[in-house]
Amino acid sequence: MKRNISLVFLALIIVFCMMVFTLLSMGPIYIPFEVVTRFISGQEVASQTYFDILWQIRVPKILTGILAGSALSIAGLVMQTYFGNPLAGPFVLGISSGSALGVALWVMTSSIFLGALPEYFNDYGLVASGIFGGSIILLLLMLTASKVTSKVVLLVMGLLFGHFTSGIISVLVAKSGAQEIKTFLLWGLGSFERVSGNQLLVFLSVVVFAILCALLLIKPLNSLLLGEQYAKSMGLNISRFKYFAIVITAILAGSVTAFCGPIIFLGTVIPHLARWIFKTSDHKVLMPGVILLGSIFSLIAENIASGFFSLNIPLNAIMGLMGVPIIVVFMWSKQKDLRS
Amino acid sequence: MTQVAVLESKDLCVGFTLPSGKKEILKNLNFKITPGEMICLMGANGCGKTTLLRSLSALEPFLAGDIFINGKNISTYSQKQLSLLVSIVLTERIHVPKFSVAEVIALGRQPHTSFWGRITKKDKKKLEEVISLASLGEIANELYDSLSDGQKQKVLIARALAQDTPIIFLDEPTTYLDIPKKMEILKLLKKIADEKKVAILFSSHDWDLISHMAPKVWVIDESGALHGGIAEDLILDGTIKHSFNHPDFYFDDQDGRFKEKIDFKKSKFFLQGGDATRKHWTAQTLAKVGYQVSKKKEGATIIEVSPKQWVILHKKQRMICKSLEMLLSQIHHFKA
To answer: What is the phi/psi pair of residue A54, to 5°?
Structure first.
């Protein structure tokens, strides 16, 4: 059993490396394998153009994809276990919409003060507003979950919260200038390509910090597999856990939404793939598992969009087309679990 | 030989706190439970069994009074300390996808494990002991979700046992199960109380089984008072009779069972011959449709009970019946 899990991890790491390699090499401009190999091993790359493309475009894009994939998958995993709901995830339950509203408010209003503030402040403000918007929805959901036990009602509530925030966003968009609308619409399609330089540093530090914090949740999450009452009887301080989980999940989902747009379905799909591939619900395995699988999933999507296949389709279109069939298959096989 | 109580209550009052105020369900509860005691909590639906169990296990706050565990007030314990003293088995069914029986039971070790929940050699030994006590060795590697209700219940009991606490509370552990499985669960609880000296308090509605298998019973009557004792004592002093009042049923002191009140019809039957068991069930069949069995031959219709058949002697006729069902239809026929 243990050996099987290690083997699966090994196989996934190989797939992960392949994805990274193809994304470095392929794209609008093809970079020969030997150049990529030299680049990875830290040797000098003869062509300055190749080096710039690799270092300034493709590495940030890959890093962003890895961070976004890991962050959303962990957020999804924490939410699914906490709510005991197999369909929970940052997008499905409206956390991403909440973040989107935060970001929209920031984009539309910051232009008023922006002249007076240094540029890095803008990046932090963007992340902070994304996190803030997401945590408000999450707080509302947890309040709902403490009053209603039905899994379906919770999902519907999440959808409704999502639609409500989208409504506010539409009002904001309707009242903005053409440039802001364009920025916002492009952002809504989702992309790993817009984060670079300082922004990437902010994104990286925030996500890595939140993932490290999420690892602290492994033991409590395992006890929550039996439900809140049993977790409590095994010594878990539920209210403290709840606030910790809200903050971490909102940081993970909010920062990704702020920088990459509302990436859809990934957070719901990956935990299921992980449980299916690793054949366990143990979070000691699932936590590293979803980090790896989430990264691979976003790199595959990026390969379709701009790498190996270079189809030039918006990221969220690919996420939807890849994610929805997996969710449908899952729901089909698990109808029983969703009934209660 | 007075043992120190592991759990004690003083003027305990449990209930709900509603926006409109406090709703008391049970009050002035004073009781003691000692190590190794196994007590079944009984009472009509909605009498407050679950509320009491949840308050005792600190899942819900209680309204007034005190609860002492090992002599210390329950409010002085942290959640973590309490998890080393009390473990629970709830009545709700749970879904745990992709988790093996052994993994579910191992969760019980959480209060004892380190920050990351690593299972040490000591934990492993405890888990093996628990699995063998609950006879779950054969299915330890199967998925929890694939088990039958009875097996799931045993796994959850084993999980509570793995928590290694001096007290275990169980809320209706025998519901949903067929009779042999119910008995199996009760036998397991008895074994845990005897061998591990764990104090066990569980609620149940299965009076017939409880009166035969549970060493001690607590009954909550209609007024919300708690009566404790040996099942037979509670039958003899009328507690059971008075706690489950219902206009259509009565409690048969002889049998120790609840029975339907029947308006007996005029005609009586006399059972002749046969063994006691066959006569007993014949009498029960007749009683169900309102006919009484008479102790005297005079004025009664005679039924000869023999090992293979029943013969009704009615107005010089002999009606032979191969089953009690046939017997009933014959009686209906000539009474009509």
So the answer is: -65, -50
Domain ranges of chain A: 2-339
Contact B98 A237 (CB under 8 A): no
Which residues of A lie inside 8 Å of B (Cβ-Cβ)?
Answer: 84, 86, 218-219, 222-223, 225-227, 229-230, 232-237, 275, 279-282, 284, 334, 337, 340
pTM: 0.86
Please tell me the distance from the alpha carbon of residue B7 to that of residue B41, in angstroms, as a whole number: 15
For A264, list phi and psi in degrees, rounded to 5: -95, 150
First to last CA, chain A: 31
Beta partners for B66? B10
- How far apart, in whole angstroms, are the C-alpha atoms of residue A268 and residue B114? 30
Helices (H), B59-206: 79-82, 101-107, 121-133, 149-162, 179-196
Asked whether the beta carbons of A73 and A290 are under 8 A apart, the reply is yes
Q: A207-247, pLDDT tens digit by residue?
A: 999 999 999 999 999 999 999 899 999 999 988 888 888 88
Q: Give me the DSSP letters along B80-117.
A: HHHTTTEEEE-SS----TT-BHHHHHHHTTGGGS-TT-
Which of B300, B268, B315 minimizes the C-alpha distance to B287?
B268
pLDDT digits 0-9 by tens, B129-153? 999 999 999 999 999 999 998 899 9
* Domain at A2-339, CATH class: mainly alpha
ipTM of this model? 0.86
Rg (CA), chain B: 26
Residue the block writes with tokens 């979700």? B145
3 state SS of A55: helix
**Tokens at A126, concatenated:** 């963007």
